[in-house]
Amino acid sequence: MAEWGRKDAEMAIALKRAELNRALSYKVNYDAEGHNICLALIRFKDNTIDVLTAYSNDSAMPESIRLGLNLIPNLYAFMPKTEFFGCDGMAQFHTEPKLLNYLFATPGIRQNAFSGNLPINTFYKSVLESQRERAIWHSQHVKRPDDLASVTLVTEINCCSTCTEYSINRFRNRFPNIPLLVIELGKEVGKKLPVQFEKISISITPK
Asked: What domain of life (predicted)?
């Protein structure tokens, strides 16, 4: 399979944004667009692919919605300090290190992230158990770092200097033989500047 192209990357993140906004539309006084989405588009040496998704404010949503959207958990606290991406500041909550930590975590660390108390209600308990089982299955089938051919990070907002230094550059220094492409789409929440697509055209339907 060929490398991920710019058009593929833009379409993938646009579709995930639309899906996430619909899922969170029930929340009152919450601006889902105020928080970043980042994708890791992964190609392996056997030409298979995978896509991981991180949202910068996933703690604001119920676990069932997070799992339903296939958002990866934050594994920063579980990673050995010699291996994690990010720093001891706010970077562990940012999407780029969150994705890289998930990709390079052991299957056991990933599985432990999908645990916790279950609802008392029988129906919701059953739903969440099923979602966790699917998430755990996927976490166990992410291929090893040795199998990576390339990684493309696609982020709505441009990477901050901390993420660049402690995540992007750290990855490139540790794995110089694995190409890492970063596509930054220039969104600026404070200036109300939307994602700057180059290859696709998105029509926004008013609410």
From this structure: Bacteria
